[in-house]
# Entry
Amino acid sequence: MTHEPKDADARRAIEPVICYPTETLPVPDMPLYAGARAGAVLVDEVLVSPRDAGAIEVPAGHFLRMSAVDGPQVGDLNLFARDNLLERFYSGKTRALHGTHITTGDRMWSSFPYLRPMATVFEDTLGWYGIDGFGGSVHDVIGTRCDPYTGNLLSGGDYHHCCHSNLTRALADHTGMTLREAEPHVHDVMNLFMCTGFTRDTGQYFMKASPVRVGDYLELFAEIDLLAVLSACPGGDCAAEHTSDVAACYPLRMQVFAPLAGRLDGWAQPQVNAYDRTHGR
# Structure
């Protein structure tokens, strides 16, 4: 079975089919969001220190801006429904619906059984980057987050300021949970500003120096009440490594903006998925 068949080239030449055509997905009302963003007022702000994480609550209908402050820096983002941590960002389904990297107009979807838009990407100052010659792009929903378990497996030792641990501490601090209670809620991330892809020869996940500049930002429209937890990755711009005490690292800023009264008239939060959950019984 390991020998190449005579029709190998023909098999490779079969054209692909998109697994999840998105023509029937509900379309975000971007003009409405733009009207709501105009004149929106800053109501909350958190500065995330390098090699650490922070948490912020984002009410439905508000905007969350995440920006680079003093230098090129990537971040790992977890999103939760504010009042139900079991509803959390589902990177795999977001990837299946929108692709490996997300940008303006794409949505961040929640886990089963809820499966609804949690947030919509409203503005992306790195939208110009596209896909480079290596297949790299920014804001990936591929990577899982740097973590102490994989680090221990590959190189031994315990490193406590990787994104998984940063997110765990920040979630515990914000909710009052213990670290052991908080850790199971930490989930696969959206890699903010990170430039990643897959190699063509081995299919391995790669990273390269992020194109992010000071002042660049990604802004989300909160479709539901959110708790956002963001880690400033110890890899800095991830030009060489992602778990490091020597890489140049910089803060990330999270800001919440509230629209003026009446700017979202006619808008409603998305309902949880309508599947009846009987599973054939």
In short: Residues 73 and 237 are 5 Å apart (CA to CA). The chain has a mean pLDDT of 96. The longest strand covers residues 190-198. Residues 27-258 form one domain.
